[in-house]
């Protein structure tokens, strides 16, 4: 990807007030909220199909259970927006408030989560520490041996990212946003320290503002504009069971065995399984490595300790996608201090879908020069100005 000071003309040339790079849930939320606020001449540029990057998972968890107050506020505001999504922007996203259940088998984790619950409660999140017995009542698959405690919030749940993307895209298009799919960014033109155009493989788009919402590909967009965005791609995988029943499987919370990162929840007539492989190397490979000797075998080995019935369930298939990770596993949201018309919302480290509605509002406010609905100053990429190993904002609730 190149960077240049002046443009050189290509087969097509158009103009925009705002170019949003990335047609995932973050980029489309940004475009929708800008258009809703009256901003005109917005173009969304997506290298593949909408939602084909990090947003492509079949079910996404939504929660306000975090340790960092900024993440709590972004999650809580987004939960409210998901609950109201049918009215604004419109569409059924199959939002289900089944709750989130963190299973804790280490005393140190219990102490950390107890502190987080106090912070969450102060911000009106109804989470609480519960007993292992109560955790099993909420999720009958759970084996309580070795379980010290659990944390539950009934207001959390999950929704369908694809339906959210469609809802934002339709509403944005109705408001006049141009959405260009299968259009890859190849460079950014600068003049006097400002972005003047975005180069693509289909032509040049002159612009007054560039918003980077390119997920795992954001580092390259930032480099092209001279803005350091320490975002790296990391594969994450899930599996879907075959339909269970009759009888139908119990309706359970989004359940996470925190020490192993294994998680599971309802998915149509079956269950969805997930696990963060600690040996996973960074990179853009999205091959699903299911099978007894692959990722699925690792999940089965781990889950036998905490929810043994799951280890024997038949799998219908799986999926692999990319987390967009930062050094401290917290997002990068803000306006560049060196390229003033370059805004960014990326690096969510697995939390982008659940924070997308609030982040769209925040970027709208930053663009309009008004106080954001959530103060995200601490999430500026400039916290890593001293290097990617600089002290950031650690988040406890990371899977």
Quick tags:
399 residues; alpha/beta; nine-stranded mixed beta sheet; eight-stranded mixed beta sheet
What does this structure look like?
The chain has 399 residues and is α/β, with parallel strands linked by helices. The protein has nine helices and 19 strands. The chain has helices spanning 25-36, 69-83, 86-90, 107-122, 132-138, 161-174, 218-225, 295-306, 352-368, and strands at 2-4, 13-21, 42-45, 60-62, 100-104, 128-130, 149-153, 157-159, 178-180, 185-191, 194-200, 203-212, 232-241, 254-257, 262-267, 270-275, 315-325, 332-335, 342-346. α1 runs parallel beside α9. Residues 4-11 have low confidence and may be disordered.
What's the structural blueprint in terms of helices and strands?
Blueprint: E1 2-4, E2 13-21, H1 25-36, E3 42-45, E4 60-62, H2 69-83, H3 86-90, E5 100-104, H4 107-122, E6 128-130, H5 132-138, E7 149-153, E8 157-159, H6 161-174, E9 178-180, E10 185-191, E11 194-200, E12 203-212, H7 218-225, E13 232-241, E14 254-257, E15 262-267, E16 270-275, H8 295-306, E17 315-325, E18 332-335, E19 342-346, H9 352-368
């Amino acid at each position: 990807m190149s960077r240049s000071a002046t443009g050189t003309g290509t087969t097509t040339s158009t103009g925009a007030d705002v170019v949003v790079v990335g047609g995932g849930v973050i980029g489309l939320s940004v475009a929708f909220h800008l258009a809703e606020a009256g901003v005109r001449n917005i173009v969304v540029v997506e290298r593949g199909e909408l939602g084909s990057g990090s947003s492509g998972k079949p079910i996404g968890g939504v929660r306000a259970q975090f340790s960092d107050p900024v993440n709590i506020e972004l999650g809580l505001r987004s939960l409210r927006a998901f609950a109201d999504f049918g009215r604004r922007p419109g569409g059924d996203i199959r939002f289900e408030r089944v709750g989130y259940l963190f299973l804790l088998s280490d005393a140190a984790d219990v102490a950390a989560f107890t502190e987080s619950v106090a912070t969450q409660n102060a911000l009106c999140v109804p989470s609480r520490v519960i007993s292992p017995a109560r955790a099993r009542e909420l999720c009958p698959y759970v084996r309580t041996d070795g379980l010290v405690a659990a944390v539950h919030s009934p207001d959390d749940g999950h929704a369908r990212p694809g339906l959210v993307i469609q809802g934002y895209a339709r509403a944005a298009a109705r408001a006049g946003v141009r959405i260009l799919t299968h259009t890859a960014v190849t460079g950014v033109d600068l003049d006097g320290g400002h972005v003047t155009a975005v180069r693509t493989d289909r032509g040049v788009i002159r612009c007054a503002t560039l918003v980077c919402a390119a997920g795992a590909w954001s580092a390259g967009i930032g480099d092209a504009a001279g803005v350091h965005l320490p975002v790296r791609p990391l594969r994450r995988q899930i599996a879907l069971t075959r339909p269970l029943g009759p009888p139908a499987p119990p309706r359970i919370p989004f359940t996470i065995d925190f020490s192993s990162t294994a998680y599971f929840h309802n998915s149509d007539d079956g269950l969805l399984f997930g696990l963060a492989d600690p040996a996973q190397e960074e990179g853009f490979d999205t091959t699903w490595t299911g099978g007894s000797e692959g990722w699925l075998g690792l999940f089965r080995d781990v889950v036998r300790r905490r929810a043994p019935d799951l280890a024997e369930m038949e799998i219908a298939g799986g999926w692999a996608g990319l987390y967009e990770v930062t050094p401290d596993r917290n997002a990068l949201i803000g306006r560049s201090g060196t390229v003033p018309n370059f805004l960014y919302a990326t690096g969510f480290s697995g939390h982008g879908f659940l924070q997308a509605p609030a982040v769209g509002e925040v970027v709208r406010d930053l663009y309009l020069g008004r106080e954001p609905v959530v103060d995200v100053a601490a999430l500026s990429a400039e916290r890593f100005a001293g290097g990617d190993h600089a002290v950031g904002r650690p988040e406890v609730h990371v899977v």
